[in-house]
């Protein structure tokens, strides 16, 4: 494959800029990256109806009173458990709206669902990722390659920003599932970046014979070959989960699939482009 990675840098960064801008807009509009139910206080209701009732009818009762049920689980044709994550204690208000319908038999059991996870967990995860990025920079410095270490650091930050932008565009809420996916994608990103940096470091002796740009393209081509095979193998499993699983596993698979695809190509193109830019200020690779 005789693909010129460096020549395609403008297309990549135009696409990246569009993704980041759209991600920022969706975040400001609260479309995505808002705290999800894992971080909110909720209400668990157990109700017995006098007559069989459809889940759709229960949702309509709640909707008329400006409530949205996150989970409605049927225990039998008349008995249901309802979970609502309102962000505050609304149990008395919710209990009364069901009583007022006149459809309820017996008492309504209502309990608060306390947020099991505090919001600062997500922030702490981002701190850990930042620490990991700094460690990546230091590991790259072991080889006494300052430019490569700087490229690795900047690519990791860029990848994280792209990942969050993609999740925001998809309208995903901050949850434990998202937190897990970000950690996995970050680890995957670090592996890709180290592979690219190692290829460039090993091929730098070829600069005199083939030139700087050809050396970068050769290194990226070698890295992309391995990365593409790994990506295809992972995507086969993830697509299977998306098709055949539900709930948490399906959501995790969607997040990982979108993240892996974006990060694979971002790591390859971004690292090459950043190295070219930094090379304008440092003469080591000239």
From TrEMBL:
Transmembrane segments: 12-33, 121-139, 146-170, 176-197, 218-245, 251-275
Name of this protein: Protein export membrane protein SecD/SecF C-terminal domain-containing protein
Keyword rRNA-binding recorded: no
Pfam families referenced in this protein's UniProt entry, alphabetically: SecD_SecF_C
Keyword annotations of the record: Cell membrane, Membrane, Protein transport, Translocation, Transmembrane, Transmembrane helix, Transport
Bilayer topology term: Multi-pass membrane protein
Cellular component, GO, one term: plasma membrane
Subcellular location(s) per record: Cell membrane
Protein source organism: marine sediment metagenome
Residues covered by the Protein export membrane protein SecD/SecF C-terminal domain: 107-278
SUPFAM superfamilies hit by this protein: Multidrug efflux transporter AcrB transmembrane domain
GO biological process, one term: protein transport
Transcription is among the record's keywords: no
